[in-house]
Amino acid sequence: MHGCFHDNIAAVKAGINANRVQESTQPWDVVVVDAGNAAFCAALDIGAAPVGNWSGCHAVAWERNAPEFGDLAVGDQFQKHSYPWGIYINAEGRRFLDEGADFRNYTYAKYGRVILAQSGQFAWQVFDAKVKAQLRDEYRIKQVTRVVANSLEELVGKLEDVDATQALREIETYNRAVRADIAFDPNVKDGRCTEGLAVPKSNWANTLDTPPFEAYAVTCGITFTFGGLRINTDAQVISADGEPIPGLYAAGELVGGIFYFNYPGGTGLTNGSVFGRIAGANAARRAA
């Protein structure tokens, strides 16, 4: 559902607003944007009140060389969400987050901003052959920045814009830290972790030791901001004066104040379904 309407209408759209986003301390102006802000801006123009976590957004690992505003033919396949089965390496050749902190659904929408904070606003996801079957379909599209190698030494030499010497050292240190005595189970938080690392991996820690090795370059991609329009329980858009704007309703990612700092996967669909039904019913009732 996408669109913005006035006079007995429901507005349902992603809440991207570049000016708002750029007020935060993160360099959001350099990220790839996967949505638009026309509906939000149109609502503000008629006096709607903004609300929510403006320094936060649905920010994910996204193909490093994707078009600036995405590609409708590819859709969300630019995302790269299989990182729990491998490791991240930044430009300095170091890991910088816990890839196994939780299931993907609870970390993917906040890790994009962590990638954005790295030098060059990019990172590489590194995997070995043991987990290749676990990689999601988005890793098999043609529009990927991918390198393959038969040794770790060869692999790090192919990681563009990365300190190869430090990257090899980091991977070897990581491999030694893996608790190989704990069984790997991708279906549960298996507790297969690392020990003694400054940046731990809490689950699904597999050694990178089985060629061919693969790495995928990613940056940060924004889908929607956590800030948006203020609504009431009838899905009516609230004005800056605190009163409902007659005939204007909102639902979905256009609405602010629902998510703060993180986003559990799929909850935007629930949000849109619940408030979309309320907004549609109220708009239809008003028009009758």
Jot down its keywords.
disordered N terminus, Flavocytochrome C3, Chain A, domain 1, three-stranded mixed β-sheet, 288 residues, elongated, six-stranded mixed β-sheet, alpha+beta, FAD/NAD(P)-binding domain, 6 helices, 2 domains
Q: Could you walk me through the main structural features you see in this protein, from its secondary elements to its overall organization?
A:
It is a single chain. The chain has 288 residues and is of the alpha+beta class. It folds into 2 domains: 9-55 and 224-287, FAD/NAD(P)-binding domain, CATH 3.50.50; 61-220, Succinate dehydrogenase/fumarate reductase flavoprotein, catalytic domain (Flavocytochrome C3, Chain A, domain 1). The chain has 6 helices and 9 strands, in the order E-H-E-H-E-E-H-E-E-H-H-E-E-E-H. It has helices spanning 18-21, 38-45, 108-116, 152-158, 164-177, 267-287, and strands at residues 9-12, 32-33, 50-63, 87-89, 123-127, 146-149, 213-229, 236-238, 244-251. The strands form 2 sheets. Strands 2, 3, 4, 5, 6 and 7 form a 6-stranded mixed sheet that branches. Helix 4 (152-158) crosses helix 5 (164-177). It is elongated, with a radius of gyration of 21 Å.
Helix and strand arrangement:
Elements: E1 9-12, H1 18-21, E2 32-33, H2 38-45, E3 50-63, E4 87-89, H3 108-116, E5 123-127, E6 146-149, H4 152-158, H5 164-177, E7 213-229, E8 236-238, E9 244-251, H6 267-287
Parallel strand pairs: 1-9, 2-7
Antiparallel strand pairs: 3-7, 4-5, 5-7, 6-7, 8-9
Helix pairs in contact: 4-5
The ordered string of helix (H) and strand (E) elements is EHEHEEHEEHHEEEH
In the CATH hierarchy, what is the superfamily of the largest domain?
Answer: Succinate dehydrogenase/fumarate reductase flavoprotein, catalytic domain
Assigned CATH architecture of the largest domain? Alpha-Beta Complex
How many individual domains? 2
CATH class placement of the largest domain: Alpha Beta
State the major sheet.
6 strands, mixed
Strand tally, please? 9
End-to-end Cα distance, whole Å, is 22 Å
| Unreliable runs | 1-6, 13-24
> What portion of the residues fall into strands of 2 or more residues?
15-25%
CATH fold-level label of the largest domain: Flavocytochrome C3, Chain A, domain 1
Classify the secondary structure makeup into a structural class: alpha+beta
Radius of gyration: 21 Å
